[in-house]
Amino acid sequence: MTLDPPTILALTVALAAAAALYLLIEWRSVREPSLLCWSAGFATITVGSTLALLRINGYLVIGIWFANGLLVSAHFLFLLGVARFTQVRLSALWALMLVVWLGMLMLPADLPWSKAMLAVQSLLVALPTLRASSLLRPHGKSLSVGAVQLRYVLLIHGAFYVAKAASAVVPGTLIDLAAFKGEIIQVSLVEGAMAIMLIALSMTGSERYRREQHIARLAARDPLTALYNRRALNLRAPRLLAQASAAQPGALLLIDIDHFKSVNDLHGHSAGDHLLIALSEMIRSVTPDGALAARLGGDEFAILLNATSAQGIVELGNQLRGQFQQLACQRFTTPQPVTLSIGALLFDQPPASLAALIEQGDATLYESKRGGRDRIQLVSGTGAGV
Question: Coil, helix or strand for 242?
Fold first, then answer.
């Protein structure tokens, strides 16, 4: 099969349409705005390439600059999608591109300044493409493989259009836009087909990685409070437990709400949920950097600390108790006060396991409740034999 302009344009239409459809299907599943922008960009390329294909076959549906202008708007949509993907707000000045594009729509292709217009159009494609590439730089965090690929594909694609803009105004360059002839036009068609395929693959890879990361985060979080769940705590605790030493003891705090059932019975389960959420926010606010906080289930929570002390544990526990009691007293009227009981363990050696540590913590929490509730029970000196 000869790679003449009609063949390349037909291939471009097929690739762009397939990419637009696939990204649209992905968007319907995850509702990620960047996918919708990218899908719209490929759909725009499909329309523009179809119009160009009709023109080259003798169907002069519309001026040649309209099809070329659609290429500009498609790359603007790519930029908009990358901005959504990276959560960056674009300047309103980028909208001026569309104003320039509107001024090119009705221009015939055989004017003496057609080379200059081709250069302008090429720059209007290059600018948003290079800007999209720059937005994908890893700003203090690593990128997925798909995002890295997309960054460099856009960079090379933008650089190509910069070179195309420069070569379009070189004296003696053969360019026939109406018949799609000339070295620049031929190379641009081939590059465009390849770029569409590579950009589409990179975009889907980027979104797939983000979706997998989102699923992993959801699997590690309690759906009500957004704290770690028990499974996530089990996975993350060993590294923190291994740091325990006499110089930097670790600690486990098990927290339970006293008379929580009365809140559900008297005020409804939604009130109980609101109380759990409020407690989780308090826990998050008092938990120091490097510590772990989790909801173990029901109204039981855990905080795992490193490099702490008995005094620090007591201060943290009392701060949490005071904040919670004030909130519960203001919001809910119950026969018995809704308070917190805390069982705390201070250990100066890595414990045998988190499960064994929690088992002893449960016993300490029970002692706190048996001692009258609304208090913190602290056991110090827990060693590796826990």
Answer: coil
In order along its 386 residues, the chain shows pLDDT tens digits of: 456 777 878 888 888 898 889 888 888 877 788 889 989 988 988 888 888 778 777 666 555 667 677 888 888 999 998 898 888 888 888 877 767 666 666 555 555 556 677 788 888 889 999 999 998 887 545 566 777 888 888 999 889 888 888 876 666 554 544 444 445 555 566 666 777 777 777 777 666 666 766 677 767 888 899 899 998 899 889 999 999 988 899 999 999 999 999 998 888 989 999 999 999 999 999 999 889 999 998 999 999 999 899 999 999 999 999 999 999 888 888 888 899 999 999 998 998 889 989 999 999 999 998 888 889 999 986 443 33
Contact 153, 199 (CB under 8 A): yes
**Whole-angstrom distance, CA of residue 196 vs CA of residue 307:** 53
Separation of alpha carbons 113 and 231, rounded Å: 67
- DSSP alpha helices (H): ranges in the chain? 5-30, 33-56, 64-86, 96-104, 114-135, 145-168, 183-220, 230-241, 260-267, 269-286, 310-331, 354-370
Place of tokens 């070189």: 170
Domain 230-382 adopts which CATH fold? Alpha-Beta Plaits (3.30.70)
Rounded to a whole number of angstroms, the distance between the first and last alpha carbons of the chain is 74
List strands edge to edge, sheet with 376-382. 292-297, 300-305, 250-257, 340-347, 376-382
β pairing state of 250-257 and 300-305: antiparallel
